[in-house]
Amino acid sequence: MKKAAIIMMVLSGICFLPACFPQIYHISQSPETWTVARKKCRSKYTDLATIETKQDVLKIRTLTKTLSYVWIGLHADTESWRWSLENQNYFNAQEAGFRMWDDGEPSGSEYYKICVKLQNNGKWTVQLCETPAPLFCYNEGTSSFIYVNLNKTWKDAQSYCREHYTDLASVRNQSENEQLKNMLNSASAWIGLYRNSWKWSDGSAYLLDNWAPKNPSSLIKNTCAGSFSGKWYNVDCNDYWNYVCYSEF
């Protein structure tokens, strides 16, 4: 009867999702790795906790105030690559997905944050983003690429390109890749492709940013998110922590 009444409220516009269908959280004080915790949550409830609003953050904090870290459902998305230049008009339907991976690449799946360099053989390799290297910029005004022989981290390279030109170089096709290869005057150089994504175990969109200061750290391998005192920290998924499951209304 209660569920039917809530459905009528949604249909009439009196309330909106997710407010009408709040998650019910369940605390387990039997420490597990993140993967085992997810398996147990899915077996008994719905999944590890998804946190979508500030109200959800407060609920989790209240429920876990006597505990240290607890696993939540957030984990590194090691399959989502993106270009620094986010102007979608720059790419046609196929170009944003152009890749020239070297053999064995992309590696680095144990890191949530990884960046891409073009090598002097024309193939792409991944590297920790904090590694200094030369870079390729793109100048929208002249539709040209610029090789910059200064050693910078990927983030500093991005800032340099955005300050002096348009952005780090996006490589849309074989012709552009060959052009950059011929300009390269070092072993490798940064391009604009990177991975820096998180996703929820249940597939919900990652919308809320609730990280503690200096988190997430890009140097922690096999990383998942734990909640402590209302903030999120990325820690090794193989650590043992208590965990929070949720069930649907």
UniProtKB/TrEMBL annotation:
Pfam families reported for this sequence: Lectin_C
Protein name: C-type lectin domain-containing protein
InterPro entries the UniProt entry points to: C-type_lectin-like, C-type_lectin-like/link_sf, C-type_lectin_CS, CTDL_fold
Presence of the UniProt keyword Cell membrane in the record: no
Signal peptide bounds: 1-22
Keyword Disulfide bond tagged: yes
Alphabetized PROSITE patterns for the sequence: C_TYPE_LECTIN_1 (PS00615), C_TYPE_LECTIN_2 (PS50041)
Protein source organism: Oreochromis niloticus (Nile tilapia)
Keywords assigned: Disulfide bond, Signal
C-type lectin domain residues: 25-138, 137-246
